[in-house]
UniProtKB/TrEMBL annotation:
Record's keyword annotation contains Isomerase: yes
Organism expressing this protein natively: Sinocyclocheilus rhinocerous
Name of the gene: LOC107753699
EC number(s) from the headed UniProt entry: 5.4.2.11, 5.4.2.4
Family: Belongs to the phosphoglycerate mutase family. BPG-dependent PGAM subfamily.
Annotated InterPro entries: His_Pase_superF_clade-1, His_PPase_superfam, PG/BPGM_mutase_AS, Phosphogly_mut1
UniProt site (Transition state stabilizer): H188
One Pfam family, short name: His_Phos_1
Protein name: Phosphoglycerate mutase
Amino acid sequence: MSKYKLFLLRHGEGAWNKENRFCSWVDQKLSENGVVEAQECGRLLKEQGYQFDQVFTSILSRSIQTAWLVLEAMGQEWVPVTKSWRLNERHYGALIGLNRAEMALNHGEEQVKLWRRSYDITPPPIDESHPYYAEIYNDRRYSTCDVPKEELPKTESLKEVLDRLLPYWNDVIVPVIKSGKTVLISAHGNSCRALLKHLEDISETDIVNVTLPTGVPVLLELDEDLRPVKPRQLLGDQAKIQAAIKKVEDQGKANAQNK
């Protein structure tokens, strides 16, 4: 029997999503389409009668901006929003800024799929010569983290995303849910996938095939032990959702041109 409702949301389309580039920890705002996605998500949730008590986001603007737009569309701007780097997107290391389709052309679609979707394969690490290294690690927001800046990741597998996310989930988010509050986590494709793997006990093999489109809320109905009592629900027009999932999956193909 369902006792708690948890909503996961991959942020609306970002500027680099549109350009089919690995965005990761580079701070990007939403594209025009991403703003619309977030607003439509909020309207959908309002129409279906949902209300939130607490929202959690990463410390990246596209995640925060999405939460703001959703709450505004729902008329729930007053709901508290808590931010943590532990909900950040996966750190793609040296791949940050590169075009996925060009990478598939140069390295093969299978290699790009492994970098993007596998559980325990880690991309090459970022170093100080990388064009976005200084932008990331000199950013003031990372001086507020709960670990020293020098201990922040330089690359991550999905497993490592889950490893840094779980303490925050267990220590901060779980007590809020178990207090009876309805929570929205507005985060990123990989931080949401990592949490889904944990909650739904998805195998390392099967998580490769879990795709979350931008701006589509995922409803999880959980029992008292925070285990799902029914399959996850992607809310909205199902034909549009399937088309959006295919669009995300095609981004790693050599013939993808900013799809």
